[in-house]
Specification:
The complex is a heterodimer of chains A (363) and B (110). Chain A has helices at residues 13-24, 61-74, 134-144, 159-170, 189-197, 255-259, 300-317, 323-340, 343-362, and strands spanning 2-3, 6-9, 29-32, 78-80, 83-89, 93-98, 101-106, 109-112, 116-118, 131-133, 151-155, 174-180, 202-204, 206-212, 219-224, 237-239, 243-246, 250-252, 264-267, 272-275, 288-290. Chain A has 363 residues and is an alpha/beta fold. The longest helix of chain B has 7 residues, at 35-41. Chain B is mostly beta strands. The chains are: A alpha/beta (363), B mainly beta (110). At the A-B interface, strand 10 and helix 3 of A face helix 1 and strand 4 of B.
Chain lengths: 363, 110
């Protein structure tokens, strides 16, 4: 059976950062991803990141991705692509499916950095070709360089809806409107201002009633909702669109953590069911760590810091770092994380994260 | 509907041009791009039809999770076209429901 000291599952921002940090400390690290290319969703993030200089604010996600890949290579991370982790057995053994065969990988510590998937919204016509996730549209335009449609309705005015709208405009599509069920815009003001300046109306307290068309989307009906989310009769309007993008939140992809028997908590602020973890990102199962969106939906910048924390902690328990040095390095990362979870948007997540950590300590 | 010029990403990288045979008709694609991206670029949005009601389905998640985009590729049904790279000469067919396996020769003749 093949062996590795630390297996990191998922080669997005959290997994890459975790693998780099653990390998830098001297651990043997295997980074596993089911896709053909590493980077997770980083390479479609063509906007500049927020934060401070330490968080590489002002740098585009795609550039950070290139740097992380180079660094992972430099510090000796073994990367296995096109490899699905289908099972997580007792004693931290992983079942891998790679193309036409399967194999086992015996590990001493596991870092789950499996990310998230987009939520869907069901309405009449939602299965028609032309209705898709906003993240799907973002992948198409920024990675594959193909437009999903010409005239687009965006559902959801959180950061994903706002950012993908702007990027659809950059790619040459027309976004007819952004609708948002809440009475307020959920995303950052700076993103909302950008799309408004570009002429895209943001209609709050609006929902999609239906998508219509023969074999694919030809139009969408939207309407205003009251404060109990009920459609107000007579406010329906029909928009001539060929594409409807859904930006209605993300949910952690935590199947492997469930399989491992980790304890969970339901935290709406963090996207739903989240594995409990401590200050070191360790779950309720010793030796299994989590980082990034699987540990609660946030951003790539926080995902990378959580990855670093998990990588340092896992390498520390395998004695690659002295407890003193490990503690100093981890507290630096924790300070940077705290700085990212600040302000109107970050504060709610900071509170939710504290609850997760407290619940883990009591578990 | 390809994004050839982009204000941030610049010109699209030039890839090797290949041909896919889609339901008997040739379409142009770029080697290595997902089959679904090539189909979308050629203007095709309907990828399959459901078993019971014959409803159309297209690309939905583009991540390989939802399986809405499955088609029959080189005789193998239920291939996720959003995460399967296009190769020259691939034979791609729409399927209804779960599709059907076709007999494949053990070795492809050159």
């Amino acid at each position: 059976m093949q062996k590795t000291e630390i297996a990191v599952i998922g080669a997005g921002p959290a997994g890459l950062a975790a693998a780099i940090e653990a390998a830098r400390a001297g651990a043997q690290v295997t980074l596993i991803d089911e896709n053909e290319r590493p980077g997770g969703q980083l390479f479609k993030q063509i906007h500049k990141f927020f934060g401070s200089k330490e968080h590489r604010a002002g740098t585009r996600g795609v550039e950070i991705g290139v740097d992380l890949l180079e660094e992972a290579k430099r510090v000796g991370v073994i990367t296995r692509l096109n490899t699905v982790v289908y099972g997580l057995y007792h004693d931290k053994c992983l079942g891998l499916a790679c193309g036409d065969h399967s194999e086992d990988l015996q590990t001493q510590a596991i870092i789950l950095a499996t990310g998230a998937s987009e939520n869907v919204l069901a309405f009449p016509g939602w299965t028609l070709p032309g209705v898709m996730g906003a993240g799907a549209a973002q992948t198409l335009i920024n990675i594959h360089r193909v437009l999903p449609g010409r005239r687009i309705l965006m559902v959801g005015a959180g950061n994903v809806g706002l950012i993908v709208t702007y990027q659809l405009l950059q790619a040459g599509a027309e976004v007819v409107a952004i609708i948002e069920g809440l009475p307020v815009i959920g995303g950052y003001g700076v993103h909302a201002s950008k799309v408004r300046r570009a002429g895209v109306p943001i209609l709050t307290s609006h929902t999609i009633v239906s998508a219509e068309g023969g074999e694919s989307v030809e139009r969408a009906v939207i309407a205003q909702v009251d404060n109990r989310w009920q459609v107000l009769c007579g406010t329906e309007q029909t928009l001539e669109v060929d594409t409807v993008c859904l930006a209605v939140g993300l949910s952690p992809l935590a199947e492997l953590a469930w399989m491992a028997g980790c304890r969970f908590s339901h935290v709406p602020t963090l996207g739903g069911w989240v594995p409990l973890h401590d200050q070191d990102m360790q779950t309720s199962v010793p030796g299994i760590y989590i980082a990034g969106d699987v540990a609660g939906i946030e951003e790539a910048s926080t995902a990378m810091e959580e990855g670093r924390l998990a990588g340092l902690a896992a390498a520390g328990t395998l004695c690659h770092l002295s407890p003193e040095v490990g503690e100093i390095k981890k507290s630096e990362v924790r300070d940077r994380l705290a700085a990212l979870r600040w302000g109107g948007f970050g504060e709610g997540r900071a509170v939710a994260k504290r609850q997760i950590i407290e619940a883990r300590c009591e578990a | 509907m390809r994004v050839d010029v982009h204000p941030i990403l610049g010109n699209a990288p030039t890839g090797k041009s290949i041909i896919l045979l889609v339901d008997g008709r040739p379409i142009k694609a770029i080697e290595g791009e997902p089959i679904a991206a090539a189909l979308l670029a050629s203007g095709r949005r309907v990828l399959r039809h459901t078993a019971r009601h014959g409803e159309p389905r297209g690309l939905f998640c583009a991540l390989g999770r939802c399986t809405d985009c499955v088609m029959t590729v080189d005789g193998q049904p239920n291939v996720r076209t959003c995460v399967t790279p296009a190769r020259d000469g691939m034979v791609i067919e729409s399927q209804v429901g779960l599709g059907r396996w076709k007999h494949l020769p053990l070795e492809k003749e050159e």
